[in-house]
UniProtKB/TrEMBL annotation:
Source species of the chain: Streptomyces lavenduligriseus
Keywords in alphabetical order: Hydrolase
Domain SGNH hydrolase-type esterase: 33-204
Pfam family, one: Lipase_GDSL_2
The protein's name: SGNH/GDSL hydrolase family protein
GO molecular function terms attached to this record: hydrolase activity
Source organism superkingdom: Bacteria
Length: 223
């Protein structure tokens, strides 16, 4: 018998009130998200789940704690790290966030031969600019369900990029929500029709994991 999950029964999801309770003492007042479709929370609607992407969900949860939260999301589908630098960095700096989400370079992998040196330089520049705001930084690693069959070395590309992201995040003190081997990757209905983006069932899980990660930061901060 196949069990059909909903947002209320999904063991990886969090109800809004429960998530807000985990972030009850969150200090953040200005939340910014930059990057690509992963940052934007792009994905098809899943039956039994709300239709918001992960980033809008997190903003909604934070507003339960900080009703005056300012929220900026400049993410653009298809944006590379270079495009994010060129077209989103200025708005990010002008916004002056205290909580800031950075992309992990997924679209840079779609070249015939990705230049990981260039990807690292672009991401490092983004991290430098982001760190200058004083914001707490967050990012994701790519999940293993995201596959581009035309590239036979796709898994190696993703593993290399994820390692790069983890290293940079560690260097800059960013929070990494590691989706590479999360159990949600095994779900048959996880991906949208494009076979790339998480549907909103996956977006709900990503939002919950981000809340858990932020709650862990709050639990370990110095009073």
């Amino acid at each position: 018998m196949v069990t059909t999950l909903t947002e209320e029964t999904d063991p990886f999801c969090l109800a809004t009130l429960d998530a807000a309770a985990m972030l009850f003492d969150a200090p953040w007042q200005r939340y910014a998200v930059i990057g690509d479709s992963l940052s934007a929370g792009t994905g098809d609607k899943s039956v039994g789940y709300g239709d918001q992407g992960w980033s809008d969900r997190v903003a909604h949860i934070l507003r339960q704690v900080r009703p005056g939260l300012a929220y900026l999301n400049t993410a653009v589908n298809g944006a590379t790290t270079a495009a994010t630098l060129a077209h989103q960095a200025d708005a990010m700096r002008e916004f002056a966030p205290d909580l800031l989400h950075l992309p992990c370079g997924a679209n840079d992998l779609l070249r015939r031969a990705p230049d990981f040196g260039e990807i690292e330089r672009n991401l490092r520049t983004l991290y430098d600019l982001a760190a200058a705001t004083g914001a707490l930084l967050t990012t994701f690693t790519l999940g293993r369900s995201y596959v581009v069959p035309v590239f036979p070395d796709w898994t190696e590309r993703v593993l290399t990029l994820n390692d790069l992201v983890r290293a940079l995040a560690g260097e800059y003190g960013a929070v990494v929500v590691d989706m590479w081997d999360h159990p949600v990757n095994a779900r048959e209905n996880l991906l949208s029709a494009d076979r790339v983006h998480f549907s909103t069932s996956g977006q709900a899980v990503m939002a919950a994991e981000m809340v858990r990660a932020l709650a862990a930061v709050l639990a370990h901060r110095t009073p």
